[in-house]
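Worked example 4.2. Below are the chains of a multi-component assembly; read each line carefully before continuing.
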Amino acid sequence: MTQHVLEMRGLKQNRVAISYEQMLRFHGGPHPGGVAVAYKVLETAFPLVSPGEPPERSRIQVVVGVDGPGVVDGLECATRAFSRQRAIIDRGAKKGQPVCGEHFYFEVHYKGTSVSLWLKDGTLTGEFLALASKTSGGLASEAEVARFDALRHEMAERVMTSPACDLFEIGPVVHG
Amino acid sequence: MTLSIKLRDYAGELDITLDDLESFHDKDHFGGVVLSMKVLQRAFDAFPGTGVPHRDEIAIVAGLNPPGLIDSFEFMTRALSRRRLVVDQTLAHGPASPFGRFAFEVHRPCGAVALWVREGLLPGDFATVGKKVEAGFGTEAETARWNGYKRDVGVALIPMKPEDVLDMRLIEGRRLVA
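Applying the procedure described above to all two chains together yields the following C-alpha cells:
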C-alpha cells in the first residue's frame, strides 16, 4: 500500500509529516474527495515551490477558488493556513472545474515563489456534484445518500491514484 | 505508550492518536497536546455506556487557550471550527498557566462535567516563567526552562491515568442540546 505523506519543516526546523489518512481523520466528514484534492495540490506544488527540500510549514500560503469543507479541512490539516491567516478564498477565480459558481482553482505560495493549479473539467462527474450538494443540504433521499457514499469514496480513490497531470492544469512557476 | 481516543463523525469511528495531534500542532506546546487528550478521556469516562461520542455532541469550555491544547481539542472534536469551544478565563479551579487556569468543562447530551488539573503536577514557577517568556521578556535561562517545561510536562503526563491528572465533578442539571 502506498504511503501518502506530505513532508514539511516545523517551527524549529523539525520534520513535520502529515499523511492523507491524518487529513481524513481531521476532516471526518462526507467529503474525502475534497481532502484528496487538497492532498494532491500540495503534493504537486511542494517540489515546484520548494525544490530540493521540504517547505517550512509556517511559510506556506494558499489561495483557493473553492471553500468546500473537504478541501479546506485538508489544506488546514496539512499547512494550518486557514487558522493562521495564510489562506485566501478567491471567489473570482475563473479557472478550474466549476461547482456551484466556484472553481477548483489553487495557488500555493512559498517564500516569493508560487504555482497555480486548477482541476481539469470532468474530474468531478455531474452526478457526484449534484449528490454532494443534496447531501450536504440534508435534501438527499436514503438511496441518494447511499449512492453518494459509494461515489465519494470512488472519487477520493481516483484522485489519490491519478498522476497530477491527469487531474490538474499546472501554471508556470512564478518567482517573485 | 501510544495514546489514542475514539470519536465519531460523519465518516464513522475515528481513532485519533497522539501522533495525529502532535503533527497537527507541531510539537511546540507538547504538554497541552497530551493534556487535551487526558481531559477528554476523563470526561468521557464520566458517562460509561454512552458509546463513542460524536464530535458534534461535544462542547468544551476551557479556562485557558494555549496553542497545543486548543489545536488538539480542534483536531479531536473540531469544536473550534464548529463553534463549540469557548475560552472562559474566569474559570476558577486548577493551577495557573500563562494562558489562564487549567480548568475545563465538557458538555455532552448525556451530561456535563467540570475538570481541573490536580495541584502539585506542575513546577512551582510554571505560570510565572511561562508568562514572562511568552511575553518576550524571558532571559535565555528562563526561555530554556520554559521550553523544557512544555516538553517535560507532556512526557510526564503520557503514562498517567486521566484520573491522576484531573479532578472532576458532575455539573448537575446541565447537558448539551446537540
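Take a moment to check your reading of the output against the notes. The helical segments of chain A are 20-27, 32-49, 69-79, 126-136, 142-161, 164-167. The interface with chain B takes residues 10-12, 14, 16-18, 22, 24-30, 32, 57, 77, 80, 83 of chain A (CB under 8 Å).
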